[in-house]
Amino acid sequence: MPHELQEAETTRAIIGAFYVVYNALGYGFLESLYMAALERELRECGHRVGREVYVPVMFRGAELGRQRLDMLVDEKVVVEAKATEILHPNASRQLFAYLRATRLEVGLLLHFGPKPRFHRVVCLNDSGPGLPHVRSV
User: What mean pLDDT is predicted for residues 73-101?
Assistant: First the structure.
């Protein structure tokens, strides 16, 4: 599937930075601390990072409100982080909604849990609403 490789370079850099942060800090910190470390690591590698970016949610041309994204990297990849013991099953669905709101197509869900895990979420925005394509590792 061709969309699986979208933003491959950026997602590879984010995943690498995720493991650098996790290996240095381990499990048990607040999500905000992991995100601060991830932001620092990505910026040191030359990436543009937006934290707590607000995007409008539209309905029939009118703004309903704004949704906060944990992180936006290189204005291409939405990053959602969780620092819970167990990752809630709806977490990737939340990221999928963020992608639809931004019209971006690639997101990473980073789980700073007892075991580090990430999930890649792809939303082909030109195809309208549907189920997310999630690749878990």
Answer: 93
The whole model's pTM is what? 0.85
Strand ranges of the sheet holding 77-82, from the earlier edge strand across to the other edge? 49-59, 62-73, 77-82, 106-112, 116-122, 133-136
pLDDT number for residue 59: 86
Could you tell me which of 121, 117, 123 has the C-alpha nearest to residue 137? 117
56, β-bridge pairs: 66
Three-class SS state of 125: helix
Q: Indicate the length of the chain as a whole number.
A: 137
Could you tell me if 68 and 53 are in contact, meaning their C-beta atoms sit under 8 angstroms apart?
yes
CATH number at 2-136: 3.40.1350
Integer Cα distance of 55 and 52 in angstroms: 10
Structure confidence by residue, pLDDT tens digits, 10-34: 999 999 999 999 999 999 999 999 9
For residues 72 and 78, give the distance between their C-alpha atoms in angstroms, rounded to a whole number: 5
Domain boundaries, the chain: 2-136
Q: How far apart are CA 79 and CA 70, in angstroms?
A: 6
